Amino acid sequence: TITLSRAILPQHIIIDERIECQGIVTADPTQIHQVIMNLVTNAHQAMKAQGGTLRVSLSRTTSCPFVTEPGKSYLVIGIEDNGVGMDQKSIERIYEPYFSTKEHGSGLGLPVTLAILKDLGGHIDVDSQPDRGSRFSVYLPESEAQTTEELAETTTPSQRQPAEHATIMVIDDEIQILELFEKLFSRRGYSVRSYSDGKQALEAFSEHPDEIDLVITDMSMPTISGDQVARRVINVRPDMPVIVCTGYNERFSAEQAEELGVREYLLKPISPKVMLDKVAQLLQTA
User: Fold this and answer.
1) What is the DSSP string of 83-147?
2) 51-62 pLDDT, tens digit each
């Protein structure tokens, strides 16, 4: 992930890497990658104009500000920048879906990060001041396993085995969300066909409707809305499981989704675990 970060950051942003320890956490590597990339992206945006130093650290602690349990060991990932920083009012809202301090931000990076960490039993803390930069600290409970082989032995067979082969169509105009789903589903053995344009997705679906086993679509997209996508998909394949993902949307409610034939209506941010569970359930009953 750090290597990828170096590749995508401009030359006027320098990475200062400080790895103080090594450890094992019980998590999908895709989830950890997504957490780090979301925070690195935020730091990049904060330093985009003037440049600066991005400090990435890994340390161990038995003192987590969110937990009173004594002696529990946590690995701490620190992402720190010396960019524009945030005031207290912004800090209080950064985990709200669609809230962004950036002009062109989606407002989903930090809510998704928080959802992932909740799944993992982790926590996130932020320290920031205007014009003094920001530091995000991610606390992940350290596994008692000494090796990845030991960790694999403690997981259940259903957690280790890849999912039965199925093809999932994912439609979302946010590239960051598409990339997360691609990695998440691919690691579970699914084939993924992703589209950032709903109309292009429908054209592809109409050409080969029998090749798709499940459709996931965002609700709010520029060329066509998620409910329109769902309606046209279900018209072609009434048996098709469709998941609609949305922020708070008065125009299309859960009741309307059910009437349309949508199988799942999920409110953002959606944790990877919830999404994987819903997909598995729908494919099993399809």
Assistant:
1) SS---HHHHTTTTSTT--SSTT--S-HHHHHHHHHHHTT-EEEEEEETTTEEEEEEEEEBPS-SS
2) 999 999 999 999
Please report, as a single letter, which amino acid is at residue 45.
Q
Q: Give the predicted TM-score (pTM) of the model.
A: 0.64
Question: Whose CA is closest to 119, among 264, 278, 274?
Answer: 274
Question: Which parts of the chain are beta strand (E)?
Answer: 13-19, 52-61, 74-81, 123-129, 133-141, 167-171, 191-195, 214-218, 242-246, 264-267
Q: Domain 155-285: which CATH class?
A: alpha beta
Summarize pLDDT for 65-83 with one digit per residue, the tens.
Answer: 998 777 789 999 999 999 9
Pick the range with the lowest mean pLDDT from 49-58, 111-120, 191-200, 248-257: 248-257
The CATH class given to the 2-147 domain equals alpha beta
> Residue 104's pLDDT is what?
58
The residue ranges of every structural domain in the chain are: 2-147, 155-285
| DSSP tally for the chain: helices H, then strands E | 11, 10
